[in-house]
Design goal:
CATH superfamily of the largest domain: Fumarase/aspartase (Central domain)
Bound molecules: arginine
Structural class: mainly alpha
Strand content: under 5%
CATH topology of the largest domain: Fumarase C, Chain A, domain 2
Number of domains: 2
Order of helices and strands: HHHHHHEEHHHHEHHEHHHHHH
Shape: elongated
Radius of gyration: 31 Å
CATH class of the largest domain: Mainly Alpha
């Protein structure tokens, strides 16, 4: 396979140098984008009369043939090619002969690779967004199915208060919504067309960059040729967005792993998403969730890798930039897979409602509700805190429940405490008492569920 730059060299490159520098083993994934970009470029060259129209037509026809084989899944990259640009170029040459040599007019691989990557990102952002929406939908369906279940909620890994399970679930939906807006931002900020920057300074040929941008669906052209060929911010942003999305997924996974423990026993994960032990026949382990939790480490690692790769890199193109690809491709693939697996897990998840009901009986969950009651009667928050602190401590020492205190005993803690306090000491009352916007109040949560279902087209 001949290289695109061989003429200046009298020596053949060392095979080890080839092995070390070739990117075809991973950039072959860009084949479709490389061809689509080249079609637009050739059309522009023909329209501008930079190359004869008849040659442009031959180039476009040849490229469309290659595109057809890519779309049918029949394209097999040539491992002897240096990169995907070289591979496509030489295929075109063998298809149409001499006119193929005119395709690279007013273009460098430096702007070509940025274009390929931008087209790749655009497609993947759409797929990632669809996967995020798919998971949001699965969570909303699961929450609606279990809309009245109440569970304990934690701070410091200590059971603290009770909430609707749906309220906890909608927290995930919010996280994912932010991921979606970040993906949207990535697409918006990356929406400029780099072609025409050539190696770095532009060209003296009369190209029409706006025309290529229009053909390829970009709304702007890159304003500075040096920035265009050296900028990889759009890659950093997409990896960063993926990294944060995987962190969200790892947090969800951790909650579910926690809930599936024998100690908690709140949910059941379908067997098809669990694995067994080679030595302990009774085990049913949440390995899929553990790998979701663990995979996030990989993407966070790639985020560090791309930052360090770019740090201190002088303008303009440097070959280091080639290494952005494995990091980005694997970040996107991993994130997408994690989203898809988590969606299936949610679709198969079952809540152990009897256990949930048992777990929310502890009356210490309701101390804040009693405090709020006292505040409504004019007691200061600080005093209410002290009163409840003393009550809880006494009850703990004597092994008693708050609800077992007589009216007389209640009055000893505070004259503002009356018999109605006992009505507060149950989980349903606790969630119903919450009234603030964004709280776990069932009416508000159910309204949120409806809003999400509508927004997600369910
Ligand atoms: N494989 C290269 C990359 O991924 C393509 C650009 C090569 N440009 C060059 N001047 N060697 O960045």
């Amino acid at each position: 396979m001949s290289k695109l730059w061989g003429a200046r060299f009298s020596k053949k490159s060392d095979p080890l140098a080839d092995l070390f520098t070739f990117s075809i083993s991973y950039d072959h994934r860009l084949a479709k984008y490389d061809v689509v970009g080249s079609i637009a470029h050739a059309q522009m060259l023909g329209k501008q009369g930079i190359i004869p129209k008849s040659d442009a037509v031959k180039i476009v026809t040849g490229l469309k043939k290659i595109l057809g084989s890519i779309e049918k899944g029949k394209f097999k990259y040539d491992p002897k090619a240096e990169d995907i640009h070289t591979d496509i170029q030489s295929r075109l040459k063998s298809l149409i002969g001499k006119p193929a040599d005119k395709l690279h007019t007013a273009r460098s691989r430096n702007d070509q690779i940025v274009l390929d990557m931008k087209l790749y990102c655009r497609d993947e952002i759409a797929q990632l967004t669809a996967a995020v929406i798919g998971l949001q939908k699965a969570i909303v369906v699961f929450s609606k199915k279990n809309a009245d279940v109440i569970i304990p909620a934690y701070t410091h890994m200590q059971a603290a208060q009770v909430v609707l399970l749906a309220h906890h679930m909608l927290a995930y939906v919010q996280m994912l919504e932010r991921d979606k807006t970040r993906l949207f931002d990535c697409a918006k900020r990356g929406d400029f067309m780099p072609l025409g920057s050539c190696a770095l300074s532009g060209t003296s040929l009369k190209i029409d960059r706006l025309y290529i941008a229009k053909l390829l669906g970009f709304s702007k052209v890159a304003a500075n040729s040096m920035d265009a060929v050296s900028d990889r911010d759009f890659i950093v942003e997409l990896i960063s967005t993926c990294a944060l999305a995987t962190i969200h997924l790892s947090r969800m996974a951790e909650d579910l792993i926690f809930w599936v423990t024998q100690e908690f026993d709140l949910i059941d994960i379908d067997e098809s998403f669990c694995t067994g032990s080679s030595i302990m026949p009774h085990k049913k382990n949440p390995d899929v969730l553990e790998l979701i939790r663990g995979s996030s480490a990989k993407v966070v690692g790639y985020l560090t890798q791309i930052h360090v790769l770019l740090k201190g890199l002088p303008l303009t193109y440097n070959r280091d930039l080639q290494l952005d690809k494995p990091a980005l491709f694997d970040s996107v693939d991993t994130t997408k897979n994690m989203l898809l697996v988590m969606t299936k897990i949610f679709a198969s998840l079952k809540v152990k409602t009897a256990n949930a009901a048992q777990r929310v009986k502890d009356e210490s969950f309701f101390t804040v509700d009693v405090m709020d009651h006292l505040v409504k009667k004019g007691v200061s928050y600080r005093d209410a805190h002290d009163i409840l602190g003393k009550m809880v401590s006494d009850c703990l020492k004597r092994g008693r429940a708050l609800s077992s205190l007589s009216l007389g005993q209640l009055k000893q803690y505070s004259p503002a405490l009356d018999g109605s306090v006992k009505k507060l000491l149950n989980p349903l009352m606790s969630v119903k008492m919450k009234a603030s916007l964004g709280s776990t109040n069932p009416d508000l949560v159910h309204k949120q569920l409806d809003l999400w279902a509508k927004a997600l087209g369910q």
